[in-house]
Design brief:
By secondary structure, the chain is mostly beta strands. The protein is about 10% helix and about 30% strand. It has a domain of about 50 residues.
């Protein structure tokens, strides 16, 4: 999975982690990405990788109007004791 938001293009950033003793080590900050399924006007279901900021904005503005709810395969199965 590419670690890039399909909506805004936000990706990972690199920099230095600085300790209390001011030692610098390289580190990576990754965006909080989620996979959502959206159905378009033709009935085709597509999977988008979207950061949580874009998902929040899309919920407010209504960009993704038809989200598809994914139910796990074992959702109705009784729990084992």
């Amino acid at each position: 999975m590419a670690r890039i938001c399909d909506c805004c293009g936000k990706g990972q950033q690199t920099g230095n982690k600085v300790s209390k003793s001011y030692n610098h080590t390289r580190r990576i900050w990754r965006p909080n990405l989620l996979k959502i399924k959206v159905q378009d006007d033709f009935g085709t279901t597509r999977t988008y990788t979207v950061c949580t900021r874009c998902l929040r904005t899309a919920d407010k503005t209504g960009i993704f109007t038809k989200k598809v709810k994914v139910v796990p395969a074992n959702a109705g199965a009784p729990k084992a004791n």
